[in-house]
Amino acid sequence: MEKPSLTVSGLTRYLKLKFDKDPYLKEVTLVGEISNFRPRRNGHQYFNLKDDHALIAAMLWSYRYQALKFKLEEGMEVVVKGEVTLYGPQGRYQLLIKEMEPLGEGALFLAFQQLKEKLTKEGLFDRPKRPLPLYPKRLAVITSEHGAVIHDIETTVARRYPLLQIDLYPAAVQGEGADLTIIKQLERIRFTHGYDALIIGRGGGSIEDLWTFNSENLVRALVDFPIPVISSVGHETDTTLVDFVADRRAATPTAAAEMATPYSLTDLLASLREADSRLNRSIKRLLSVYQEGLRNYLERPLFTRSSYLYADKMQDLDRLTDKLHYLSQQKITSLIRPFNDWHRRLELQHPKNRLLQASYTLEERVNQLNQLMKERLKDLNHRFHAKNQALILLNPLAIMEKGYSLVMTPNEELIKSVDDLKKGQEVDVHFHDGIAKAEIISKEKFEEGKD
What we know:
The protein has helices at 8-21, 62-66, 107-121, 148-160, 178-190, 216-223, 241-245, 253-260, 267-298, 301-304, 311-349, 351-394, 396-400, and strands at 28-35, 45-50, 55-60, 77-87, 92-102, 138-143, 165-170, 197-202, 229-233, 248-249, 406-408, 426-431, 434-439. By secondary structure, it is an alpha/beta fold. The strands form 3 sheets. Strands 1-2-3-5-4 form a 5-stranded mixed beta barrel. A 5-stranded parallel sheet has the order 7-6-8-9-10. α4 runs parallel beside α8 (253-260). It is elongated, with a radius of gyration of 52 Å. The chain starts with 7 loop residues before the first helix and ends in a 12-residue tail after the last strand.
């Protein structure tokens, strides 16, 4: 009797059931090298983990990817924790990653080093440090409203320099989005004139607690700040990127206040402040322990397992979304192409373009006409001067200026010959500048051929 045959889907479902029920595959820890990693913007990340002999597909949910404290790169060696599952539509097994750390160092420390190297290359930490004023009048402080930092600063200032006015700009100093609240207060201070210096800080804690002060946006906001900045973040052994961009770094809030003020008083008050600071730091460390316990509790499968119920569907959705995007782009391109062709044709026939071409032609014809008119006027002017010169040469007055005169009767009849004269006749002799009366006493006519 032949065994009943299975479909591909049936076999895949059977294998997936085996994967899902295997307790050893629920949480595995792997060490491997990131391979075939192509970052997807605002989406889930798909890549491979490999070693010298094998390779496994891996998936990282978008919210987990965005929560990484370091930059994921091709070829990076990492330690990951996750669940091995079977992706049915493609019949392949993969690792759904829950946690990821760089191999050999912590994720936050690696992110700190990567960002520090980037900002150092940009020269953000090389600008000259500005001196602090000797006699400040107003001091701005950005820190937690209820933390020990503002208390230490106010106490120190009251002891050392009571004339100094302190203005608190409260902000979150820990947790997601805390850097944005600090940047907002920086903008308020920037547009409020009259401050001599700024203290920005918080108490000590782990690298996670101090991570707000490694924010790239916060560092850039402090680069060109108009007044000197004193950084008082964490303890003396703690280092943040804000320390590198600040004009001064103080190990404690008290030290920051001492830097900002010119005088000091008794060591007794300093000891009391230090004890108060240690008490507050102890409380903060205790709170950090409880917070860590709470985070561990929230990481239990009861709260994290629910997302895996729809893991396959989310991958299907990503695959279909990519396909829809590709097809829609092709369709849009094919629809736009003829529209662009008609648009170019209409542009050539647009009345505005035709009028513009006609105006160019008209302007060219006007210029040609003006040139012809100028040449014609020049020719007429030349001819006019020539005729005028000829008239000047034929003008009787011009001849009379040389010594000639005209003889005329009183009736203004020109006498052209001696035959027209009679003895005793009165005549008018016209010169170029006047008339003279004369009487004919005698006359003599020349014979022809004689002068």
